[in-house]
């Protein structure tokens, strides 16, 4: 009997028989009792048994096979075994089964995952054996299935442990050769992804502000990092931080805002693993999973091992960096000592020289070989040896001696002024074992101080010789110096360090208003840090006499620009005041005579206009009269002031406009607008004539309804230029068209050239503007 016949005989059972074309053993070899015994064995054997046809459909199945996949026998009949196989295993199993059908093989064994009714998969070892007829044709296959889930789990766990150990080993090896923080972070991220089998990872460390920030990451968006940066489940000084993990973020107790951010990043599970350096929390690393994940004890142990290695790697680099910095600083210190122009010396507590830099060689003339081992008193000139015991006593007490000025002796016996700074030197235990000394040559400074004192003496003599009153103050306004002229000017002797702001007894404004000393020009100069000019005041002496004067307070500054005090010169202007009074009298007389002459000229022109027989003559005479009136208005404003060389625009413009308006129709309206700037005498007269022409032209040609319309005038200034503008509601005129036909416009253009100005005419609105440079007064 061949193997196919024996197998068919063994596995057939009444009620679930094989197809009729299956060869059966001879009847004499079969008995009901034997068949029943085989059926019981088939049902209760400890392995799953399935019979399948050429299409892979289930024809027969025992109870154990049903238990393995969690289905009833009736539910399995007719189903393809390949539909119940994990997609990852179908290709290999199907290829082997096709070879079995073709007769290339009679048996094969494969490990595959079987789909259970509850959706889970079961690892099984399946042995598929062919059943053939006597001619060798394939009838069906008997598949024996063993549950190897425990073995697979053990194998996977072992493989996982091997992967973890390999990842830890690679991480340790890479840390040995890492020379920069990014290299440590990259190695750590690779190890986290491999050892913990997570999809994403990150490393965060505390910065100098104790904020936990990302230093390395894999697979995280910019928005996520910005949203969660700074978050930490532990306090900065927590003594024993433990890992924190969330196996299902969506169902966790995280704050809602944080949870939403994590879920939005499609992170389903996460672990927070603390990183310690020197026993103190330094940061954390994060492991992220795209699906809920159960964290086992061994897995957390691996994570903590990774964190320890990360901490060691970061600490090693930091220590190396600190060592390099310390070495660099030490080298810099050596370079500074070697290249310093100052003498830098160390000595023990017995005063014996132990180190001697090139600066000491240059300063004192001794080489290092000559000086080291000798007492420091070789530098002391006769009579100063007793300074050393006092210096050593202070050093033993831990005191530091700052800028102690003394005299020392060079090798050639010459003396030099030096400034000493002496500091205690301590050993590793903090015990004072000696002193370091920095000696600076101050001979040049001493000479400069001598020259400065001499210069100050000469300056004092110079200020005393100046006939004007001069005094100085400190930054707070206290009087620090005054010359004899200041005493004579004020009628008193000021008190140094007590009197403030001014040397005078009392102060007044030019109009007689009292002027408090803390508001005087000197106080303003110190308070605002600027020189004050163009101010007048009146000083009253203790005897009651008053002196008008002009002060010239000027702040004094140090090399850094800070105000250290001020100097003031008081110029007596009593004689100038008397001269101005005489000048005012002469100007008043001149103004009176000029005004009379202009009025007489206006009367003659007015009389001639009335008696003229020609309209053209009357027109010309009236225009001349108006121009004379405009000049008279300017003259009244200019010479009606104490300063006849200039006039404020706000006084000039209204006066001239009002004079011109009186010569225009009674219902003509002139709106005198803004007026800014200062006009010189040379500008005022031509400007008055220009204004007369422009206003007369605007009222005559630009106003059709005097009740509703007006002419607007303004005089404004900006960036060193002035603009006189006359605007009306008319249509305006073309300057080029009337340039040769209008005598008034010709006069305006001629006067504009005299003022170095330019006339601009526009329409809509109708405006004529004269732009000219402001006078430098």
TrEMBL record:
InterPro entries: GAF (IPR003018), GAF-like_dom_sf (IPR029016), HATPase_C_sf (IPR036890), HATPase_dom (IPR003594), PAC (IPR001610), PAS (IPR000014), PAS-assoc_C (IPR000700), PAS-like_dom_sf (IPR035965)
Top-rank EC class of the record's enzyme: transferase
Region ranges (Disordered): 1-35
Catalytic function, reaction form: ATP + protein L-histidine = ADP + protein N-phospho-L-histidine
Biased composition (Polar residues): 1-10
PAS domain location: 34-104, 329-374, 455-494
Biased composition (Basic and acidic residues): 24-35
Keyword Manganese attributed: no
One GO MF term attached to the UniProt entry: protein histidine kinase activity
Keywords noted in UniProt: ATP-binding, Kinase, Nucleotide-binding, Phosphoprotein, Transferase, Virulence
GO biological-process terms attached to the record: regulation of DNA-templated transcription
SMART domains with a match to the protein in the record: GAF (SM00065), HATPase_c (SM00387), PAC (SM00086), PAS (SM00091)
Pfam families, alphabetized: GAF_2, HATPase_c_2, HisKA_2, PAS, PAS_9
Record domain PAC: where: 108-160, 402-454, 533-585
Entry's EC annotation: 2.7.13.3
SUPFAM superfamilies named in the record: ATPase domain of HSP90 chaperone/DNA topoisomerase II/histidine kinase (SSF55874), GAF domain-like (SSF55781), PYP-like sensor domain (PAS domain) (SSF55785)
NCBIfam families recorded: sensory_box
Protein name stated in the entry: histidine kinase
Organism: Bradyrhizobium lablabi
């Amino acid at each position: 009997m061949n193997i196919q016949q024996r197998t068919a005989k063994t596995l057939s059972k009444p009620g679930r028989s094989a197809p009729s074309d299956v060869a059966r053993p001879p009847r004499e070899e079969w008995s009901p009792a034997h068949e029943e015994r085989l059926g019981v064995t088939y049902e209760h054997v400890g392995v799953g048994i399935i019979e399948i046809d050429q299409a892979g459909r289930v024809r027969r199945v025992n109870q154990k096979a049903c238990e393995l996949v969690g289905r009833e026998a009736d539910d399995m009949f007719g189903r393809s075994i390949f539909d119940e196989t994990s997609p990852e295993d179908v290709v290999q199993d199907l290829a082997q089964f096709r070879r079995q059908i073709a007769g290339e093989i009679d048996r094969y064994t494969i490990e595959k995952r079987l789909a259970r009714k509850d959706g889970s998969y079961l690892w099984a070892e399946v042995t598929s054996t062919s059943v053939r007829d006597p001619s060798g044709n394939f009838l069906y296959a008997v598949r024996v299935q063993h549950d190897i889930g425990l073995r697979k789990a053990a194998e996977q766990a072992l493989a996982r442990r091997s992967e973890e150990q390999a990842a830890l080993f690679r991480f340790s090896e890479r840390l040995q050769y890492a020379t920069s923080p990014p290299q440590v972070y990259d190695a750590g991220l690779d190890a986290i992804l491999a050892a913990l089998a997570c999809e994403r990872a990150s490393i965060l460390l505390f910065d100098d502000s104790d904020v936990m920030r990302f230093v390395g990451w894999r697979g995280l968006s910019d928005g996520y990092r910005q949203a969660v940066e700074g978050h930490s489940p532990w306090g900065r000084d927590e003594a024993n931080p433990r890992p924190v993990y969330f196996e299902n973020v969506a169902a966790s107790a995280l704050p809602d805002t944080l949870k939403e951010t994590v879920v939005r990043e499609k992170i389903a599970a996460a672990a927070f693993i603390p990183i310690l350096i020197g026993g103190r929390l330094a940061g954390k690393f994060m492991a992220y999973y795209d699906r809920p994940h159960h964290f086992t004890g061994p897995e957390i142990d691996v994570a903590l091992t990774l964190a320890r290695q990360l901490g060691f790697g970061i600490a090693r680099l930091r220590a190396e960096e600190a060592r390099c910095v310390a070495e660099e600083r030490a080298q810099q210190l050596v370079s500074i000592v070697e290249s310093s122009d100052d003498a830098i010396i160390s000595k023990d507590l017995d005063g014996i020289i132990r180190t001697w830099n090139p600066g000491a060689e240059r300063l004192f003339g001794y080489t290092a070989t000559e000086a080291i081992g000798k007492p420091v008193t070789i530098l002391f000139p006769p009579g100063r040896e007793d300074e050393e015991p006092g210096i050593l006593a202070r050093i033993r007490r831990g005191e530091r001696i700052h800028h102690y000025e003394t005299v020392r002796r060079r090798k050639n016996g010459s003396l030099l002024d030096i400034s000493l700074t002496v500091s205690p030197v301590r050993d590793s235990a903090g015990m004072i074992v000696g002193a370091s000394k920095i000696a600076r040559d101050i001979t040049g400074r001493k000479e400069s101080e001598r020259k400065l004192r001499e210069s100050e003496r000469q300056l004092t003599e110079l200020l005393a010789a100046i006939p004007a009153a001069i005094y100085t103050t400190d930054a707070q306004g206290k009087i620090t110096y005054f010359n004899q002229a200041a005493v004579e000017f004020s009628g008193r002797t000021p008190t140094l360090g007590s009197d403030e702001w001014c040397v005078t007894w009392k102060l007044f404004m030019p109009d007689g208003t009292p002027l408090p000393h803390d508001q005087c020009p000197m106080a303003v100069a110190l308070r605002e840090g600027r020189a004050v000019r163009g101010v007048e005041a009146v000083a009253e002496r203790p005897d009651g006499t008053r002196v008008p004067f002009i002060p010239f307070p000027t702040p004094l500054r140090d090399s850094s620009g800070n105000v250290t005090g001020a100097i003031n010169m008081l110029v007596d202007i009593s004689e100038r005041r008397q001269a101005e009074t005489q000048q005012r009298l002469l100007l008043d007389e001149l103004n009176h005579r000029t005004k009379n002459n202009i009025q007489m000229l206006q009367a003659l022109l007015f009389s001639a206009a009335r008696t003229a027989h020609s309209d053209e003559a009357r027109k010309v005479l009236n225009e001349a009269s108006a121009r004379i009136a405009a000049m008279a208005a300017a003259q009244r404003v200019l010479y009606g002031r104490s300063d006849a060389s200039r006039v404020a625009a706000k006084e000039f413009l209204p006066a001239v406009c009002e004079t011109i308006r009186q010569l225009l129709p009674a219902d003509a309206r002139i709106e005198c607008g803004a007026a800014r700037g200062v006009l010189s005498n040379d500008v005022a007269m031509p400007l008055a004539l220009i204004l007369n022409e422009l206003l007369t032209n605007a009222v005559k040609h630009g106003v059709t309804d005097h009740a509703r319309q007006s002419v607007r005038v303004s005089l404004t200034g900006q960036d060193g230029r002035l603009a006189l503008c006359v605007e009306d509601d008319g249509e305006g005129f073309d300057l080029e068209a009337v340039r040769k036909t209008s005598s008034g416009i010709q006069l305006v253009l001629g006067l504009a050239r005299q003022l170095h100005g330019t006339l601009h005419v526009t329409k809509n609105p109708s405006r004529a503007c004269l732009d000219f440079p402001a006078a430098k007064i």
